[in-house]
Amino acid sequence: MAGFSWRRRLAKIVLGSALGAGLLTAQPYRTVVVAGDSMAPTFQDGQWVLMDKRDRDQVSRGDVVVLKANGERFIKRVAYVEGEQYFQWWDGRELIDMPYGMPARKRTHNIRVRTVPEGYVYVLGDNVAHSEDSRDFGPVPVASIVGVVRDAEAAPAHAQPARIDSWKPAR
Length: 171
Prior knowledge:
Elements: H1 2-25, E1 29-35, E2 48-52, E3 64-69, E4 72-81, E5 85-90, E6 95-98, E7 111-115, E8 120-124, H2 134-137, E9 140-141, E10 145-153, E11 166-169
Antiparallel strand pairs: 1-2, 1-11, 2-10, 3-4, 3-10, 4-8, 5-6, 5-7, 8-9
């Protein structure tokens, strides 16, 4: 009978460990560290934010999201959602996205109106002068959104960001 009791305890430990691991990976929230200054002044380099993995396919204009684009992960603000329009200006060499509207001094014949496609969002960093965003890689699929930022807290002194404009999971 002693062998049976030992096996039962082992089975409980293995089952409990497996269940615990499943619960940890199924958590809807994840803490990530902001790296870079593309979201300044809202979020600072090294700041921790709480990301909600639920409802990532139901984002609204103004939401801050963590997304995957061009093989990298970014934290950006949703500027436009599907069906909304933004402007592009032809400067003689290239098309330049003008996400905040059309300046009064630009010639209107050089302006193109673009619509965010269905299933996509147009994202920008709050620090537009130092941000790689939809102006560089275009609208991004909603499916590439990893989560929505819900809260922020100061990073501990030992936190080290991965690289500019990227994020890494907090340990």
